[in-house]
């Protein structure tokens, strides 16, 4: 081709446009023939078609101005899976306006407006996620304003996330299709609304999956966290207080029990744990330099209705129903914590967060700001075999179990929370037994998947306090 062009005295010039390389012919003295014109047009059309297809699959690799122009305010997505990219371009979220537009701002402000005196205005990242959706519902129910964002990636079935989004939309909470790594989107959000708090729950979860997709953990849990702290520190005026999801996994190879916030967290057993531990160090730096009020919450194996299908209790329930085998790691124990208890902890942490002391304008802080970290666990570890036994009873079917020694996949043998700090500072008291919590989960599970299963009745309990009433978040989900 180049030699042919040279022979015709035509110079080919390469230049970039919209992420694709176009070839332009520049005539050097001679007329370009009609057939060359046709060929040129066909090439341009084919290139444009390729650009369109490229944009459809990889919007994150294109420029910022592209994401600004997208129809639903979707952002770039370093951490999201391809299905989100399609959706962000083709589908519309409840805030269907171009982000930054007047209509978009109006929708965001309406969703963010508290309906009670002294109410909070909270940006919830990961609002399409398990904990994020429940917290958003609880905040909205008590009269706080909530704006959610989520990239709806396909780490697990996005339909479940869309279901949670629909639930939130019913309550008047907007959840934007957006990624925490989209700095411009975050700037626009903080420009539009003076959020009092950020509840940052968007993350790449799952301990074992980190061996398969290590970079997604860095993109979400490290780069994404920095992106949120950057926006909160430098583009919000006044700065909000940030409460974010760390993890019980930071205790890693710690053997002192129950795990206390004062114990060592410098021996992570998985990359997932290491990214959460890195997050805690990053939080320290942003608090120190910019005066951001930051609270990290170490969640302990949170479960319940609308939960995560990648987690053991959920995937085991599916396998039991389907008659498929499950693999149990011998002697593994977890401090399983029910979602309603965790929601109360998150809300308590938000309510007691204390103000940030920095200024986005001057870049200076007026004094030290709060920097806190709390365990949110259930304080009673249970063997995983016991969790399976409860599921078997509720579902009326035996599991096809295969018990093996715990593989070296990042798992730790047990977790056990000491929650005295959270109890002292915001009255955190978990009250849901694993039996009661799994019953709520199975109720929802059977309904959600329209299963023809009669759930076993609870045995008469001597301790009625353990089967506490459902909160609004749980009732909403069942
Ligand atoms: O507490 C935490 O910090 C973490 O809790 C869970 O991680 P994990 O406790 O590993 O939860 P599951 O994946 O549901 O596993 C629960 C238990 O089942 C065991 N398990 C898991 C999978 C399996 O096939 N077999 C099996 O015995 C695990 O070893 C573990 O003891 C979440 O997935 C993490 O995102 C969260 O940060």
Automatic annotation (TrEMBL):
What top-tier enzyme class does this entry carry? isomerase
Set out the biological process GO terms recorded for this chain's protein: galacturonate biosynthetic process
Q: Name one GO molecular function term.
A: racemase and epimerase activity
Give the UniProt subcellular location, in the record's own words: Golgi apparatus, Golgi stack membrane
Q: Where are the transmembrane segments?
A: 38-58
Catalytically driven reaction(s): UDP-alpha-D-glucuronate = UDP-alpha-D-galacturonate
- Entry's Gene Ontology cellular component terms: Golgi cisterna membrane
Query: Which InterPro entries does the record match to this protein?
Result: Epimerase_deHydtase, NAD(P)-bd_dom_sf
Q: Where is this region: Disordered?
A: 459-478
Q: Show where the NAD-dependent epimerase/dehydratase domain sits.
A: 122-352
What's the protein name? UDP-glucuronate 4-epimerase
């Amino acid at each position: 081709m180049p030699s042919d062009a040279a022979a015709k005295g035509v110079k080919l010039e390469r230049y970039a446009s919209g992420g694709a390389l176009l070839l332009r012919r520049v005539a050097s003295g001679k007329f370009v023939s009609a057939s060359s014109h046709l060929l040129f047009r066909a090439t341009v059309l084919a290139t444009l078609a390729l650009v369109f297809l490229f944009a459809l699959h990889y919007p994150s690799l294109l420029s910022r101005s592209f994401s600004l122009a997208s129809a639903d305010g979707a952002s770039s997505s370093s951490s999201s899976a391809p299905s989100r990219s399609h959706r962000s371009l083709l589908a519309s979220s409840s805030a269907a306006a171009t982000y930054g537009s007047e209509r978009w701002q109006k929708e965001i402000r309406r969703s963010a407006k508290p309906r009670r005196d002294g109410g909070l205005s909270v940006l919830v990242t990961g609002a399409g996620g398990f904990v994020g959706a429940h917290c958003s519902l609880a905040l909205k129910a008590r009269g706080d304003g909530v704006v959610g964002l989520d990239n709806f990636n396909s780490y697990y079935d996005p339909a479940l996330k869309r279901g949670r989004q629909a639930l939130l939309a019913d309550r008047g909470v907007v959840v934007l299709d957006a990624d925490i790594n989209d700095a411009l989107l975050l700037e626009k959000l903080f420009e539009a609304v003076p959020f009092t708090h950020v509840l940052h729950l968007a993350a790449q979860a799952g301990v074992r999956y980190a061996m398969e997709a290590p970079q997604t953990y860095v993109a979400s849990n490290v780069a994404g966290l920095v992106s949120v702290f950057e926006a909160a520190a430098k583009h919000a005026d006044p700065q909000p207080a940030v409460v974010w999801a760390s993890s019980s996994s930071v205790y890693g190879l710690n053997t002192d029990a129950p795990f206390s916030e004062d114990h060592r967290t410098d021996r992570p057993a998985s990359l997932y744990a290491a990214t959460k531990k890195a997050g805690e160090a990053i939080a320290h730096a942003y608090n120190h330099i910019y005066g951001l009020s930051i609270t990290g919450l170490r969640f302990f194996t949170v479960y319940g209705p609308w939960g995560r299908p990648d987690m053991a209790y959920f995937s085991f329930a599916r396998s039991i129903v389907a008659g498929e085998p499950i693999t149990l790691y011998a002697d593994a124990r977890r401090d399983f914590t029910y979602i309603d208890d965790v929601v109360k902890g998150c809300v308590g942490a938000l309510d007691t967060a204390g103000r940030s002391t920095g200024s986005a304008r001057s870049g200076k802080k007026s004094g030290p700001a709060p920097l806190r970290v709390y365990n949110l666990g259930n304080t009673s570890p249970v063997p995983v075999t016991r969790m399976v036994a409860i599921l078997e009873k509720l579902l009326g079917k035996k599991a096809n179990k295969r018990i093996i020694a715990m593989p070296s996949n990042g798992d730790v043998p047990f977790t056990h929370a000491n929650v005295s700090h959270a109890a002292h500072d915001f009255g955190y008291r978990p009250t849901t037994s694993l039996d009661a919590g799994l019953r709520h989960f199975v109720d929802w599970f059977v309904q959600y998947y329209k299963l023809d299963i009669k759930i076993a009745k609870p045995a008469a309990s001597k301790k009625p306090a353990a089967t506490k009433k459902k909160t609004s978040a749980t009732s909403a989900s069942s």
